[in-house]
Specification:
seven-stranded mixed β-sheet, 6 helices, Rossmann fold, alpha/beta
Length: 214
């Protein structure tokens, strides 16, 4: 059970859109999940909502449409097409990469981006490009290092520390957490971050937070 102010278990499927023109009206707040093919986007959404709301597959590139899930009060979760080296026809890949780019560039209701990366293969070039794009557009980013259960605890902590250090180079609102849909690691951190992005929790002023720590 996630410790959050928003009940993500009420999420319901709305539509699978081939492009932004087939999506709901561009209003309210959306948080998008993005990542390389087979990074674990669908599994993360299923774990967050505690239901099989998104289709999972061992075959990379299964998500080829923009999947929209409603969580009430004009808030939506978005499952974006995977990017990277999916074994699909090149024309199909170009088509859904175009829809991904259109969404990121033109969707005003996008207020937060969850970028999922396999903890064993993080920060590939396309991952970094996506984070830099979000920072340039002043969109906060949560990097989820998925499948962390594949590593022993010591190695997992080492990788998490290394990626958090590397993420400083983005020079934006970028946070990093380890995540495992199998073990439930990082689910609370994910939910609490989304609470802030969806407006359920006020954003802290850095000076006030620092004053309380002192």
């Amino acid at each position: 059970m996630t410790k959050s102010l928003i009940n993500y278990q009420v999420a319901t499927f709305v539509t699978s859109a081939p492009d932004i023109r087939a999506m709901p009206d561009d209003e309210g707040i959306e948080v998008a999940f993005a990542g390389r093919s087979n990074a674990g986007k669908s599994s993360a959404l299923n774990t967050l909502t505690n239901q099989k709301i998104a289709r999972t597959s061992k075959t990379p590139g299964r998500t080829q449409l923009i999947n929209v899930f409603d969580i009430r009060e004009n808030r939506r979760l978005i499952d974006l097409p995977g990017y990277g080296f999916a074994k699909v026809p090149i024309e199909m890949k170009k088509k859904w990469q175009k829809s991904l780019g259109e969404y990121l560039q033109n969707r005003d209701s996008l207020k937060g981006l969850v970028v999922l990366m396999d903890i064993r293969h993080p920060l590939k070039e396309l991952d970094q490009d996506l984070v830099f794009w979000a920072v340039d557009n002043e969109i906060p980013v949560l990097i989820l290092l998925t499948k962390c259960d594949k590593l022993k605890q010591g190695k997992r902590k080492q990788e998490l520390t290394k990626i958090r250090q590397a993420a400083k180079s983005f020079k934006g609102d970028v946070i990093v957490h380890a995540f495992s849909s199998l073990k439930g690691t990082g689910v609370n951190e994910l939910a609490q971050t989304l609470d802030v992005w969806f407006g359920a929790v006020p954003v802290e002023d850095d000076s006030e937070a620092g004053a309380r720590k002192d």
